Amino acid sequence: MPCVLIVEDDDDVREMLAMLLRGESYEVMTATNGAEALNAMRHRRPCLVLLDLMMPVMNGWDFRRFQLSDPALADVPVICLTAVFDPARVAEELRVRCFRKPVALDDVLNEVAAVCG
Hints:
Blueprint: E1 3-7, H1 11-23, E2 27-31, H2 34-43, E3 48-52, H3 60-69, E4 78-82, H4 87-94, E5 97-100, H5 105-116
Parallel strand pairs: 1-2, 1-3, 3-4, 4-5
């Protein structure tokens, strides 16, 4: 079963995305910040990371920098979900797909299906 890692500090958003993906038969891991996410990825490699940018402890920018510097994790695809930043700028700077929150749930499902199969 494909596994998706949701990295989001907002409990409601994180749980809503987890319920949505579990309903589509994906295994779901969750993390509330980038440090937790990196640790989770070292234990179970996800097919995709859904990443918030603004989080405590380790934000999405720092997560992506650490992820890309780790050869074991660098090639895991990331989709950024942000309410704060310009998605086009984020996509270019972080080399990821990026959507503005609130994101259409169908868009999330389509992206996950395209990446994770």
